[in-house]
Every structure is written in C-alpha cells, then in structure tokens.
Amino acid sequence: MMSILAVGTGCFLVWVVLKSIVVQLFEKDKESSLEGLPQKATEWLTDNGYEILKTKNEAKYVAYTGDQTISYRENAHFIARKNGSDYAVFVGWETPSDEDMCQRYFPLYVILDVKGLIFLNLTDESVRHVDFTVYRSRRFRVRQFLHRGMWFTGGLLVAISWLHRM
C-alpha cells in the first residue's frame, strides 16, 4: 500500500514540474495587449508577470562645466521586476524614436540601474522593450578585479587569524 502511495505521489510531483516547465516555455513570450487607458498599465504589468516595485521614480543629475550648468531630470512611471530583473516602465501615447531613446533615456537607465526599459504605447497598444549594453574599459575591469581580490584576501586573513586564535 505504501509503495502505491509513493509511486502516486512521485507521479504527481513529476506532472507538476513538467507542467510548470511547459507553461514557462510556451507562455513566456505571449503578452496580452494594453486596453487603452493609463490605469490599465498596472493591470497589463501584473497580467504579464511584472511586480511593480515603485511608481514615479525620478532620475536626475547636474553637470558643471566651467560657467555652464547642465541638468537632466526624467521620471519613470513604474519600476517593475520580472524574473529577478528590474525594468523602468514608461506609459505614453507614442513611442519615442530610436535616437530619442538613446539620448534621453540612457542616463535614466544608468542612474536607476535597471536591466532595460519598457515603453507602453496606449495609442496603438504596443509594447517596446529596450536593452542597453555598457562595455567597461580594460582599466575598469582590472581595478574591479584587484579591488575584489583585496577584499577576498582580507577576509581570508581575518578567517585564518580567527581560527588560529582557537
């Protein structure tokens, strides 16, 4: 009797795992369209698996060059998370041009430290995902490696001295 129960439980668990894998594979790229009102953006995000972390998140900086001051300020309507990655979400009536995305929204991408940007166009109910790739210089990567190595070595020395004391 116990072996039948064990086999039945095992089959059920295998079925649950296989079903979740199939659902993730086939429904990952399937996203519903927006219904047309700004209030529906939150519904669209939650329906498509996004968790809303913040609303109205602002990114700004000021640069001083000699006698000139340059400032930047942009608001993301939402900061949403999906699969462990954060995205800045913009809701509007039109999708900005590619050039505008690079010049206007790249600083926001860097300041907010998100994985990408999502533009929800309420006019034609379209969604556009934008991902940037930032390439670090060799000097930056070497400095980062040395910095992490020093922290690791320091931790190792503390651990050895603590163990040696015992």
Can you describe this structure?
- By secondary structure, this protein is α+β, with helices and mostly antiparallel strands.
- The protein contains 4 helices and 5 strands; from the N terminus they run H-H-E-E-E-H-E-E-H.
- A 5-stranded mixed beta sheet has the order 1-2-3-4-5.
- The radius of gyration is 24 Å and the shape is flat.
Strands of the widest sheet, in order across it, are 1-2-3-4-5
- The CATH topology of the largest domain turns out to be Trna Endonuclease, Chain: A, domain 1
Poorly predicted residue ranges:
32-36
**What is the β-strand count?**
5
The CATH class of the largest domain: Alpha Beta
Compute the number of helices: 4
What separation lies between the terminal Cα atoms?
Answer: 54 Å
Fraction of helical residues: 40-55%
Largest sheet: 5 strands, mixed
Structural class based on helices, strands and sheet pairing: alpha+beta
Taken in chain order, the helices and strands follow as: HHEEEHEEH
CATH architecture assignment name of the largest domain: 3-Layer(aba) Sandwich
Q: How many structural domains in the coordinates?
A: 3
Shape: flat
What gyration radius follows from the Cα positions, in whole Å?
24 Å
Tell me what portion of residues adopts beta-strand conformation: 25-35%
